[in-house]
């Protein structure tokens, strides 16, 4: 075990500064040898580290042992991570897009060069979910893992439910507080949660799936009417990332989802994340923690550094299991809500799977496969159709029963 690993840090934004604060608090500030930034003219707090702009010579450095990659661009990050692993450096990253798109290759490079690649800060903020899966669940069969993986979208949804404000106002507040990026597409579109789900699935089930294979639907199309509908049935809408293993078939998805008060994620609010793991022998466990912010994520990155000091590495015991196969053929139930200018016959749907919940033909329960929904995603976006997954059969039964009592619930 060694504690003198000098550090080179790429990027000094929100997470990088949070990490540096933890170094200073733990009297490790002197270990931060160099910080690589794109613009060295910005006003920054005084720190005892060399600050350089990115150049071709920064990739190889004899004075450092650990590389921290905390930049925004996944393309640039790939070069930093891959090249440093290839020359035997130990690398820490929080770039979920980079990892989700290149995980199999990066694991290979790590093993071939007998080094270490850690990335706890890439998933679920302050919840050490990768460490939990690697250590506690390495020999435990998992049936399902699901959660609120994106603090920005959860903050927006919390505001829509608790305050009489618009989606746009909630988004602007999230941006002002630093929970959402200036370009919020990755957060509100469900892409950030998707990348995290890919990483989680690799550790939970040993399956590496490409992001483009998984359906993600964001929260941009959720309307005030959707919020009122959910409230009227004592439900909430949460952006849920879920991986489920059924008969050796692994199903992955990211959907805004109707959940009830029996769900552990029901009371996870604002910028918090929550993760539920259901396994064969342990049963169900629930984890909750801050999913956004400088210090929560910086703390997890610092924990990766201390793990490297103690020669910790991911085991990947479940990787490449021959029995598990990814599939989009699982059948799910959704609530489709049409705007006033759209008719149901404009959508390419299997009418036998539609159940009308309103006399005006604007809200339906639709039972279909994820594969079919993938083909309809563009069509739903084009016609501003709100798509909400229904968490379980009891919620579907509740909705159908309520409208049968009103004399409406007939197949369309």
Write the layout of secondary structure elements.
Blueprint: E1 7-10, H1 14-25, E2 32-37, E3 50-53, E4 66-69, H2 74-86, E5 90-93, H3 96-112, E6 117-118, H4 129-135, E7 142-148, H5 151-162, H6 167-176, H7 185-188, H8 191-205, E8 215-216, H9 224-232, E9 236-246, E10 249-259, E11 272-279, E12 283-290, H10 294-309, E13 325-326, E14 331-337, E15 354-356, E16 363-369, H11 370-382, E17 386-390, H12 393-405
Parallel strand pairs: 1-2, 1-4, 2-3, 4-5, 5-6, 8-10, 10-13, 10-17
Antiparallel strand pairs: 7-9, 7-11, 9-10, 11-12, 14-16, 14-17, 15-16
Helix pairs in contact: 1-10, 2-3, 3-8, 4-8, 5-6
Task: Tell me the radius of gyration.
Answer: 23 Å
Q: Structural class, from secondary structure content? A: alpha/beta
Low-confidence stretches: 405-412
Let me know the average pLDDT: 90
The percentage helix is: 25-40%
CATH class membership of the largest domain: Alpha Beta
Number of strands: 17
Query: Counting H and I runs of at least 4 residues, what is the number of helices?
Result: 12
Any idea of the CATH topology of the largest domain? Dihydrodipicolinate Reductase, domain 2
Q: Please report the distance between the alpha carbons of the first and last residues.
A: 67 Å
Overall CATH architecture of the largest domain: 2-Layer Sandwich
Query: What's the CATH H-level superfamily name of the largest domain?
Result: Dihydrodipicolinate Reductase, domain 2
Strand content is: 15-25%
Largest sheet, described in full?
11 strands, mixed
SSE ordering: EHEEEHEHEHEHHHHEHEEEEHEEEEHEH
What count of structural domains? 3
| Shape assignment | globular
